[in-house]
Write a structure and sequence with these properties.
Layout (H helix, E strand, L loop, with lengths): L1 H35 L7 E6 L2 H10 L7 H4 L4 E7 L2 H12 L4 E8 L12 E11 L2 E13 H16 L6 H28 L15 H8 L2 E2 L1
Parallel strand pairs: 1-6, 2-5
Antiparallel strand pairs: 1-2, 3-4, 4-5
Helix pairs in contact: 5-6
Bound molecules: ligand 0O2.
């Protein structure tokens, strides 16, 4: 048992390093936008390393051999960016595409084509080299970019999925699909409201110069999902 624990701790370590590193990188981008006093597309950055039970469940569901888990499961390291507007989701995607430290090899656009469940989000899956004490280790990392409305829907549906062991009763599934359609029209309406506001939409920025304590606040603001 101890050996098994040690195995998973060491297996997950590079993913933890990657998630921690990317939360800081994206928080830094958010901060840069705020300081530059331009529209900031990044509202909330969070991340998680997939739990062992969820990794094993997914491997079984997708029929992935135990030894092929690192190549076969893309979301062991997950970074989530929540945005105000759909347009911001694609702006964040472009920012990620232009980075030199990741190599995006798969894009799943569940906004243009929502899942049958009603799930909407943009997923970018990338190769990333983690620098470990034993050298460079390539891993997959998944970026999920979504609006607050998409996030509200996904977190409630996710809780229900766990509650019902992935078998949500049909009647609730149908209501979730309807709720997803309502979230999509809310996003569209927010986009229309934004375009009528035009150039007024600039995030509130501080009036005074930042001080050193800000740095601490910045690190404390790192959230887990
Ligand atoms: P955890 O460990 O609970 O966080 P899938 O077969 O659905 O797992 P797919 O469609 O290839 O996989 O998606 P992908 O890109 O591997 O990402 C899986 C993650 O995306 C999920 O993690 C969720 O965070 C999110 N996701 C994908 N589909 C749905 C959905 O229908 N509803 C919700 N709420 N979230 C979804 P897990 O599996 O929840 O893992």
């Amino acid at each position: 048992m101890i050996n098994e624990n040690l195995y998973w701790q060491s297996f997950l370590l590079p993913y933890e390093l990657a998630v921690g590193g990317f939360i800081i990188k994206l928080e830094a981008m958010r901060k840069e936008f705020l300081f530059k006093k331009v529209n900031n597309p990044i509202e909330i950055v969070s991340g998680r390393v997939k739990s062992v039970s969820s990794i094993l469940e997914k491997a079984e569901r997708l029929n992935i051999d135990f030894n092929h888990i690192p190549e076969g499961i893309y979301d062991i390291a997950g970074i989530r960016v929540t945005c105000k507007y759909i347009e911001d989701v694609y702006t964040v995607a472009d920012l990620l595409k232009s980075r030199k430290d990741i190599d995006i090899f798969l894009i799943k656009d569940y906004i243009k084509e929502p899942k049958a469940s009603g799930y909407r989000s943009l997923h970018l899956i990338a190769k990333y080299n983690v620098e470990t004490v034993d050298g460079r280790m390539p891993i997959n990392i998944e970026f999920q970019i979504r609006t607050h409305a998409m996030h509200l829907w996904a977190s409630i549906e996710h809780t229900l999925k766990y509650k019902y062991y992935r078998h949500i009763p049909e009647e609730i599934q149908e209501r979730l699909i309807q709720a997803s359609i309502i979230c999509a029209s809310l996003d569209d309406e927010m986009t229309r409201i934004k375009s009528t506001m035009g150039s007024v939409v600039v995030d509130k920025v501080r009036e005074t110069e930042p001080d050193l304590d800000e740095m601490e606040v910045f690190l404390n603001s790192i959230k887990k999902w």
